[in-house]
Design goal:
single chain; about 60% helix; mainly alpha; rod-shaped
Length: about 130
C-alpha cells in the first residue's frame, strides 16, 4: 500500500514562473477581477524595536526573553514598594500630627512649648 499522494505536475504560468497544478486554485485569482485586500489599519503590530536592537547588538535571545519577562515584574515590584513607602509616610504624618495635638491639649505651658519645639524641628527638616 502506498500512502503517498499522487505527484503533482509542474506547469509554467504565463508570467514565466512555475507552479504545481494542485496549487492553481489558491495562487491564481480570477483574471480581470480586482483583488480585494482587507487590512486592519487600526490594529498596529507590537513595537519590538528594543528587542531588535538588543538582538542586533549581539546579546542572545535568552537575554531578550528575560528582559521581556522580568521587565514588567520589576515595574510591578517597584510600584508596590513605592505604594508601601507612601503609606508609611502618610502614617508618619498622621501620627506626628496626633502627638502634637495631644501634647498641646494635655500639657500646660510646658506642653505648648514642647509642641512649638516639635513644630520648629519639623520645619527645619523640610
Amino acid at each position: 500500500m502506498n500512502h503517498l499522494p499522487e505527484p503533482a505536475s509542474v506547469i509554467r504560468l504565463p508570467d514565466g514562473s512555475y507552479t504545481y497544478t494542485d496549487q492553481l486554485a489558491v495562487v491564481q485569482p480570477p483574471l480581470g477581477v480586482p483583488q480585494v485586500v482587507h487590512q486592519h489599519i487600526h490594529q498596529a503590530p507590537p513595537d519590538r524595536t528594543v528587542q531588535r536592537i538588543a538582538l542586533g547588538s549581539g546579546i542572545g535571545a535568552g537575554t531578550v526573553a528575560a528582559g521581556v519577562y522580568f521587565g514588567p515584574l520589576l515595574v510591578g515590584a517597584l510600584t508596590a514598594i513605592a505604594a508601601n513607602l507612601a503609606l508609611l509616610a502618610f502614617l508618619a504624618a498622621v501620627l506626628s500630627w496626633g502627638v502634637v495635638t495631644v501634647v498641646r491639649s494635655v500639657g500646660g505651658p510646658d506642653g505648648k512649648e514642647a509642641a512649638k519645639t516639635l513644630a520648629k524641628v519639623r520645619k527645619r527638616r523640610r
